[in-house]
Amino acid sequence: MKAIIFDLDGTLVESLPGIAASLNRSLSLHGLPGHSHAAVRGFIGDGAKMLVQRATPGTPEETRASILNAFAADYAATWPSGTATYPGIPELLAGLRAEQIPLAVLSNKPHPFTAEIVAKLFPENTFAAVLGNREGLPHKPDPAGALEIAAALCLSPQHCTLIGDSTMDLDTAKNAGMKSIAVTWGYHDRDRLSAADLIADTMEALAAGLV
């Protein structure tokens, strides 16, 4: 292993409270009922459009588009109050950086937003590459983003490990020819993560798996 690519939401940062609050405010604006954190947890993982779609079954597409716009604006303005790094993540990253292991972030969030979150929550130069969804770049589980990061680090895919909390992350790693590690503190239950090369239930287990 010569480099590590991290998913963002559910892996490095706990963003469920902020996402749920913004989603529920946006639904309320349109006269629709909100959802519990447990329900929203099941909606997360495939981008904002799919989040809104899962939260609004039977809703006309025009209304969904309006909810999506409201959610994007609300979340962009309020995310810091509902987003934080998971306990132990800063120390884990500092240890990996001390070992001079290149680190990267790959998210399905829009690229500018991904970069903003990383810049505000992590010390400068923690990551050698940060990549979110942008025009012309297919989102995960397409391997394009992971392969772009590997190329930017001048490494072959087999020398990279992708760490995430969802089946989408595991599929991305497989499609890119990378090793996968699943963490269980995110948004997919452990029984959905069996395809991972390694499953980490704790920060200590993840650190041990990266030795």
Summarize the structure.
The protein has 211 residues and is an alpha/beta fold.
Summary keywords:
single chain; about 210 residues; alpha/beta; Rossmann fold; DNA polymerase, domain 1; six-stranded parallel sheet; two-stranded antiparallel sheet; 9 helices; 8 strands
Structural write-up:
The chain has 211 residues and is an alpha/beta fold. The chain has 2 domains: 3-14 and 84-209, 3-Layer(aba) Sandwich (Rossmann fold); 16-82, DNA polymerase, domain 1. The protein contains 9 helices and 8 strands. It has helices at residues 16-29, 37-43, 48-55, 61-78, 89-98, 111-121, 144-152, 167-176, 203-209; strands at residues 3-6, 13-14, 84-85, 103-110, 129-133, 160-164, 179-183, 198-200. Strands 5-4-1-6-7-8 form a 6-stranded parallel sheet, sandwiched between helices. Strands 2-3 form a two-stranded antiparallel sheet. Helix 6 (111-121) links the parallel strand 4 (103-110) and strand 5 (129-133).
Strand order of the largest sheet: 5-4-1-6-7-8
Q: What is the overall silhouette?
A: globular
CATH class of the largest domain: Alpha Beta
Q: Which radius of gyration do the C-alpha atoms yield?
A: 17 Å
The number of distinct structural domains comes to 2
Query: Number of DSSP helices?
Result: 9
Strand content: 15-25%
Largest sheet: 6 strands, parallel
Are there runs of 5+ residues with pLDDT below 50, and where? none
Number of E-state strands? 8
Q: Percent helix among the residues?
A: 40-55%
Q: Give the N-terminus to C-terminus distance in angstroms.
A: 9 Å
Instruction: Tell me which CATH architecture of the largest domain applies here.
Output: 3-Layer(aba) Sandwich
CATH topology heading of the largest domain? Rossmann fold
- The structure class reads alpha/beta
Mean pLDDT across the residues is 96
